Amino acid sequence: MDILKELRESGLKVTIPRLRILQLFQEGKGKHLSADDVYRFLLTEKIDVGLATIYRVLMQFAEAGILFRRHFESGHAVFELNEGTHHDHLVCTICGQVDEFVDEGIERRQDEIAAERGFVLHEHALSLYGTCAVCTRQKQLLSKL
Ligand SMILES: [Zn+2]
Ligand SMILES: [Zn+2]
């Protein structure tokens, strides 16, 4: 994806912070980033942008359809690139790790359930909350001490 083109087409002015923030997502420095995460990345690069500004920029990207805003139960809103494909999430409530999955069976059932009720489905967001493999192992180790 061409960042400059993407920015211009969204009608947003091309500024250094906007460019850099969009780049962060494209570089794949973690796929699901909160405003805090972005703030920390920029700090390490000595780019001085306040948290409020970062949040505003992220929301502008979300409104422009460049990013998705996710509301996970376990904390702050996180953002990820809109890559034009759908996926669902597994969220670790201990470390915040976010994994993605797509399951044909689940997708199909949701369509069927909506259709049975004459409900026109626009979109869905499915998030499973629990403990990731790393945190589960850590818990088991600690319990043996
Ligand atoms: Zn975890
Ligand atoms: Zn995702």
TrEMBL record:
<keyword id="KW-0963">Cytoplasm</keyword>
<dbReference type="Pfam" id="PF01475">
    <property type="entry name" value="FUR"/>
</dbReference>
<keyword id="KW-0479">Metal-binding</keyword>
<dbReference type="InterPro" id="IPR036390">
    <property type="entry name" value="WH_DNA-bd_sf"/>
</dbReference>
<comment type="subunit">
    <text>Homodimer.</text>
</comment>
<keyword id="KW-0408">Iron</keyword>
<protein>
    <recommendedName>
        <fullName>Ferric uptake regulation protein</fullName>
    </recommendedName>
</protein>
<comment type="similarity">
    <text>Belongs to the Fur family.</text>
</comment>
<keyword id="KW-0678">Repressor</keyword>
<dbReference type="InterPro" id="IPR043135">
    <property type="entry name" value="Fur_C"/>
</dbReference>
<dbReference type="InterPro" id="IPR002481">
    <property type="entry name" value="FUR"/>
</dbReference>
<keyword id="KW-0805">Transcription regulation</keyword>
<keyword id="KW-0238">DNA-binding</keyword>
<keyword id="KW-0804">Transcription</keyword>
<keyword id="KW-0862">Zinc</keyword>
<dbReference type="InterPro" id="IPR036388">
    <property type="entry name" value="WH-like_DNA-bd_sf"/>
</dbReference>
